[in-house]
Amino acid sequence: MSTERQTAKVLLVDDRHDNLLALEAILQGLPVQAVSANSGEEALKHLLVNDFALILLDAQMPEMDGFETARHIKRRERTRHIPIIFLTAADRDSQLALRGYAVGAVDYLSKPFDPWVLRAKVSVFVELWTKTQQLQAQAEVTRSREAALRGAGTAIDEALELLTVATAAPDDRTAREQAEKAASVLSRARRRMY
């Protein structure tokens, strides 16, 4: 099975440009494509057109904060499965962390955080996403093969009927015609299987 490997995308959401640059630098060298958004609204727009393996989301942003953004993400069928890691410069208040988990976050890191820890966490989620993509591709191939086999089975049944008619035919010409039709049906069935 040869499936084209898709690069995992990670959505970086922070209202401060320097924080986005720092996150991009931390992810440098990982097998990911970083996509930056400087607001919750912009992040939601990216989520309409792209699939992401992970979202790194600043908790405290003006207008739509990270918690509200996460609620919107988790309400949408298309995006509710995407893991979210909250990042915040706020003090290590456990209430904020609990609030993050309540809206669907898988983790909550306070700044300053260890960049190697963040890289390790991103790597785990990217690997899970990659495995999920591979399983989905394998499932599609399996469904396709099952459909081909069902079609081949139907063609074999049809060919057997034609051969039965051919063996009971009153003359050689009718038998030959039925046998040729059966051979044609079996040939098409064979092509479907491969």
UniProtKB/TrEMBL annotation:
Keyword Phosphoprotein belongs to the record: yes
Keyword Transit peptide among record annotations: no
Keywords: Phosphoprotein
Modified residues (4-aspartylphosphate): 58
PROSITE patterns in the cross-refs: RESPONSE_REGULATORY (PS50110)
Entry-linked PANTHER family: RESPONSE REGULATORY DOMAIN-CONTAINING PROTEIN, STRESS RESPONSE REGULATOR PROTEIN 1
Pfam families (UniProt xref): Response_reg (PF00072)
InterPro entries, A to Z: Bact_response_regulator, CheY-like_superfamily, Sig_transdc_resp-reg_receiver
Residue stretches making up the Response regulatory domain: 9-126
Name of the molecule in the record: Response regulator
